[in-house]
Specification:
Length: 255
């Protein structure tokens, strides 16, 4: 394991800066472009940033929590780092690709590890038509928005919107409404992981909607398609005793 090249990167928070200084004194550090593994010091937002940077580059991420929640992070410790990484469990994340057409005719793409969400931009509720693999499933939903979440992202915004927690390896995506007014009792759906979801914004000029893929926002969309991008899969490493699958399982029993 010691023949593996490590790149240490930090979020810039005081705790991350301190940890970066300590670890680079103890272990060899190389530029990210030369690394076999990236050690990310920060919180969940920072490790998501590192995962985006690693898409398509076969460069696993080992995160250590120097943030707040740290759901995607391992505990911070300076000792035995090579041994921890060698024994870590690898989890592959397949991102979602968002393709959006705006009302001005422009096309845009973005990628998401957690979720793609559509959100109203003004005081008026959005009206959205939903198709799955070309079949209309919802002719009109009046809502604040709607999202598609990966299993990894199902405990994030999806959970706050009362969507289901999806176990890793389940092979499904969560389609979850955000404050739906009509149909009021619809709670969403579980879709095959390889499904293509199309959202068509009804009355887009009167009821403008933005599309958000993790931290990337595209405003004033007319329609959006969401599907997996398996060729850009990324890998994150977890300590064996704190694997992500166990964390997601625990969340289903949290009060």
């Amino acid at each position: 394991m010691k023949d593996k090249k490590l790149a240490f990167v930090g979020s810039g928070s005081p705790k991350a800066v301190e940890a970066l200084e300590m670890l680079t004194k103890r272990y060899p550090n190389v530029p990210v472009e030369e690394a076999d593994i990236v050690v990310a010091l920060g919180g969940d937002g920072f490790v998501l940033h590192c995962l985006h940077e690693s898409m398509g580059k076969n460069r696993p991420i080992f995160g250590m929590n120097r943030g707040s929640v740290g759901f995607l992070m391992n505990e911070y410790a300076e000792d035995d780092l090579y041994e921890r990484i060698a024994q870590a469990e690898a989890v592959e994340f397949v991102p979602l690709r968002l393709h959006a057409n705006s009302i001005n005719g422009e096309s845009s793409e973005a990628l998401a590890i957690n979720e793609v969400s559509l959100l109203r931009e003004t005081r008026q509720a959005s009206k959205i038509r939903i198709l799955v693999d070309g079949v209309e499933r919802m002719p009109e939903m009046i809502c604040d928005g709607v999202l598609v979440a990966t299993p990894a992202g199902s405990t994030a915004y999806n959970l706050s919107a009362h969507g289901p927690i999806v176990p890793l390896g389940s092979g499904v995506l969560a389609l979850t409404p955000i404050s739906a007014f009509r149909p009021r009792r619809w709670r969403g759906a579980l879709l095959p992981h390889n499904a293509t979801v199309r959202f068509e914004v009804l009355e887009p000029a009167k009821r403008p909607v933005s599309a958000v893929a993790d931290g990337t926002e595209i405003r004033d969309v007319a329609n959006v398609e969401v599907s997996e991008a398996p060729e850009l899969a990324v890998t994150i490493l977890f300590d064996q005793e704190h694997g992500l699958e166990e964390r997601i399982l625990k969340e289903q029993f949290a009060s």
